Protein 1
Amino acid sequence: MTSLLDTVRIKIDAGARISDAEALALFACNDLLALGTLAAQANRRKNSDKVYFNVNRHINYTNLCVNRCTFCAFSKEVEDEGCYTLTLNDILAKAAEAQRAGATELHMVGGLHPALPFDFYLEMLASIKADNPGLHLKAFTAVEIDYFAQLTGQPVAHVILELKEAGLESLPGGGAEIFAPQVRNKICPEKISGERWLEVIETVHRCGLKTNATMLFGHLETPADRVDHLARLRQLQDLTGGFQAFIPLAFQPDNTRVPGATGVGGVDALKTLAISRIYLDNFQHIKAYWVMLGLKIAQVSLCFGVNDLDGTVVEEKIGHDAGADSPQQLDKEQLCALIRKAGKVPVERDTLYREIQEY
Ligand code: V47
Ligand code: SF4
């Protein structure tokens, strides 16, 4: 009888797709090294030995949020100690600092602010772009886009086109969490549904902007919920081709309110990254976000099908507020060393995966 791993190997060799049932069976497989070898093989066919990183900076303009997702240690209410909203000048100073440090991208997301008008976000993009025309602006989750549509009473496509006109160039993949409603309703009951997230992202793709996709894992979800999440992403990617990278985000439990969740172990993290690579045959890039995974697991994942380590980041709040023990930032040399010591070739890219320099 052909074993599961043989079937998967044959499919990878033939460039064929694995089924949902096979992906679920892989989550039950304890032969981690065999699984990693298959994922590495699938990755090599697409990306050879290159591993991408970029020089970027995160800016979280506000942690005030009208939602109270139970997994989120970042968001605050107006009366809470530690709540903040950056002024336009603060944001411009951070952007200028990024530009001076050689960044090619700003990654900007925030909470759903109870009072800021939509014009604030348009002005933020336009004034950053005016000062720093070379910085790619990757900003706003689908959850924020939906919120802007509510704020303005305008259709999502209209909101996106206005943001695009102001300087928006792509979207990160946040807010996807886990699409399965029974878990989503427990961990983020006020957030838009999984269906709405996919609908907003489909509209973003149709408006001509690329996005990423994420999956928050290691809380209350089952392996079947993870496969359901991957299946919906693979389906949308077949339709639009607008996703660049898939990023599984390892849940950080400190200061959160998810009952019983203890965080993600190394085996689970590597398995999830490897299965994502194998299942998502229509995604070019699988990203190990070192902030949530830690540097060691992120590095080892380069032998488990991952081909992107994200960027220099510089100032990170979402994971660190929830106890992430990774550094705040890495420099180019540290990223190159991590990649090289895994036997891979470091390549600096821009946000749209155009190669800037091979090291
Ligand atoms: O949407 C919130 C997640 C996301 C926690 O697209 C948490 O390139 C773990 O999406 N533990 C924001 N995760 C971050 C994000 C991202 C990061 C890096 C690169 C890209 C990209 C996207 O962080 C949120 C949510 O899913 N998150 N709280 C937590 N306690
Ligand atoms: Fe708000 Fe986003 Fe945190 Fe949810 S995950 S509470 S939407 S900042």
Protein 2
Amino acid sequence: MPAFPARLAPQPRSVAIVGGGLVGSLSACFFAKRGFQVDLYEYREDIRRTEHVRGRTINLTLSARGQAALRRLGLERALVAEHGVALRGRMVHHAAGAGAGALTAVPYDPVDNQCIYSISRRYLNEVLLTATEKYPNVRLHFRHKLVAINFKENQMTFQVGEENSQVQRSASLVVGADGAFSAVRRQMMKAPLFQYSQRYIEHGYLELCIPPTADGKFAMAEQYLHVWPRGSFMMIALPNQDCSWTVTLFMSFKQFEALDTTKALLDFFGQHFPDALPLIGTERLIKDYFSTKPSPLISIKCNPYHVGSSVIIVGDAAHAMVPFYGQGMNAGFEDCLILDNLMQQYNEDFSKVLPKYSEIRNKDAEAICDLAMYNYYEMRDLMNHKSFLLRKKLDNALYQIIPKLWIPLYISVTFTSEGYSWCLKNKYWQDKAIRAVLGVFGMIMLLVVVLFIFFFIHAIIETPCKLFIVPEL
Ligand code: FAD
């Protein structure tokens, strides 16, 4: 690593990326490709050299928006084709009432059979970090934790390693890609008119595992995201390349606390997930459940995403969301793509690019935060309802007949590049249209019933009269 003087005036065309997670490392590639001098500062050590990585989720789902960003950098094939497990729909595991073990497959896209990909978070991050190193103008600085930032001079203070030594660095542009608890955003919050809101949902998540079968195969149909919707809680499973499944249990912290003994845990699984219990295995379940604490889930909205022409936040730093639409990383990757488009459009003039980015991105980021919240309700509860499955069928049928006019919500979010706010508006429009059609249908039915009653009564009154009329001789 090259030696820096303690303080350094920002070099023109220098970019400092704070955070070397998924979005930070991708963002580094985009700026490097444009020829900027990029310094990436990451709090953790280099995950490619560590055996165990602290942090979240083993795998996540990659969809069209994320793929589009990877494609522009020539990274899509290596990641998706070679390391993703294709998922073509949800497989709903119904509760005991509907017949324990009853399954319903709900395809994501019944027309074009498009899919999303389950992919290892660690592998993805490793590939992206390695991709940054292909550019000679990128320098990676691990074990650098941003502790302070002065926006006037774009001076950043990093705590280095464990010795608590501090260094100062600067850059003409600082990109905050330091996740939901962003230190860059924390500094932005001190400015007047900065809008910020956060919400922890009352539910947390805990990861379990279904191992491969004895002959090394998937224990369940692997082309699906498996869901066990149970009303106020749910469990999902995503396949891994090694034929195991990462199982995530989402429920309230109170429910987690209540399962505090082996018996309570096994009774609970026996009652609600009887088909999953033998696949996980009781011993493994007990070990994994009691050795991990459930993690919280947060949703964050803020505005704007930039400071002047020198600081910007992307990914979870700008818009952390609950994970139920599988869009957090995808939206973060799309941030990088949109930023790159604006750099092209405004000839890399940050004074124009950054405000425009805040302007166009904020409404879409807030829309996906809301949609992600809604999808939790859909996945854990609505999936149980016949009326909901019927609506899905209606949406799919209309999509088959008029694919340009009727794009179901999930398809627009997952398989198109339409703004998330457009997807939300489109859904409202569809709901309204269905309500209107149902309303008209209801009125017609009512009219038919009223007419029927009227003619029936009329016929009854008329008939006795006719009986008493003596026919003329
Ligand atoms: P992060 O991944 O949080 O990376 C931030 C990086 O910054 C980290 O490496 C961190 O060490 C570093 N950092 C933090 N503070 C500092 C500092 N002060 N100085 C220097 N470095 C710092 N998204 C999907 O698209 N699909 C899914 O299926 C999906 N599933 C999910 C499931 C769960 C349970 C959860 C919780 C999230 C899921 N997500 C999913 C969301 C996804 O994980 C995030 O949106 C994504 O990780 C955001 O990437 P990021 O780089 O912005 O932030």
